[in-house]
Design goal:
The chain has no helices and 31 strands. The protein is mainly beta.
Length: about 350
């Protein structure tokens, strides 16, 4: 549980929840057991989690902090305001800043807080930077104004590369057709999924577009990039449904048929071969092939659901979180075909 209205950011982390409020960062396990609590006065905290590491940065300010589930590993104050950030499975972080004298900059540090890479961009604004799980590769979504036209590009580079994006013809780049990024994540070490305001892409680091779908700017309902697939919910053009959900993997393969819903979902989450969909006070669980496997109703006050590995989900309410266990979670784990 947590005081209603006091928590500025909540994110599943480890076996519990990372909760950041006005003054503290805590890691809470079920049964109200607090495994970690530290002072952290961030005005606009944003959290990113990998398997065992947590990154918290103060958007628009200068500080970021890296922890595990037990304690702080290090904190750092940047010389320019932080606009976005990412953390990889090996603990490396990519910090995007509004760099003085440049459009933007991105700096990569390892788990020992040693700088591995930096690019200060003279001509592109960096909207998003994501690291591969092994921390060896960086994908950058950038844009710039060219007259009356907005130009956006996706750059791929290796952390140990001495060449810089937009300054080298050997750096892979993909034209994103003026789209603006909403979310981005490596699906494995070689493929990136990019969810934009009007399209979603799966792109290999060699620049091959493996999946591409377009939609109206107001037709994107929700998406989730927490696992090795992206879950994408958009408005349906069918008379019998209001929303369609598809899963897209690193190969660019999408669900054979979308999951059609008669009501727009309030929240969706995918993890470990399971999809959780919140509509009203009901959470419905689906297999990877989008077959319904369980449903839990009368969850009054639920605001969001997070799927997690092992056949359970975390449901957030106004002042508490509850673990929802799928009925017979292992029953068809490997018999799904999809």
């Amino acid at each position: 549980s947590y005081p209603s209205g006091s928590s500025k950011s909540i994110l599943p982390f480890g076996n519990g929840l990372a909760i950041c409020n006005d003054k503290t960062l805590t890691f809470e396990l079920p049964s109200n057991y607090s495994q970690m609590e530290m002072n952290l006065s961030y005005a606009n905290p944003v959290m990113r989690a990998s398997n065992q590491y947590l990154l918290v940065f103060d958007r628009g300010a200068y500080r970021f902090t890296v922890t595990n589930t037990l304690s702080e590993l290090y904190s750092q104050t940047m010389q320019s305001p932080v606009t976005n950030a990412d953390i990889s499975s090996n603990g490396s972080v990519a910090i995007v800043t509004d760099e003085a004298g440049y459009k933007s900059a991105v700096t990569v540090y390892n788990i020992d807080n040693e700088q591995l890479y930096k690019w200060s961009s003279p001509d592109y604004y960096i909207m998003s930077a994501v690291l591969s799980p092994d921390g060896k590769r960086l994908a950058l979504f950038c844009f710039r104004q060219e007259g009356l036209t907005l130009s956006s590009k996706l750059f791929f580079t290796d952390i140990d590369s001495t060449e810089k994006p937009s300054e080298s013809e050997t750096i892979t780049n993909v034209d994103m057709n003026g789209s603006l990024v909403l979310g981005m994540k490596y699906l494995g070490n070689n493929t990136v999924c990019v969810v934009c305001d009007n399209a979603t892409y799966v792109v290999s680091r060699g620049g091959q577009i493996r999946y591409h779908t377009e939609y109206q700017a107001d037709a994107l309902i929700a998406f989730d990039l927490s696992d090795d697939c992206v879950a994408l919910a958009t408005e349906s053009y069918s008379q019998s449904s209001r929303a369609d959900i598809v899963l897209i993997n690193a190969r660019g393969t999408a669900s054979r048929q979308p999951l059609s819903l008669s009501t727009e979902p309030d929240s969706i989450s995918y993890c470990d071969g399971r999809l959780a969909v919140l509509t009203g006070d009901t959470v419905t669980f689906y297999s990877k092939s989008l077959r319904e496997i369980d449903q839990q109703t009368n969850l009054a006050g639920v605001s969001r659901v997070y799927m997690r590995s092992g056949g359970s989900a975390i449901a957030l309410f106004g002042s508490q979180a509850r673990v929802l266990n799928i009925g017979n979670p292992l029953k068809d784990l490997n018999s799904d075909g999809g």
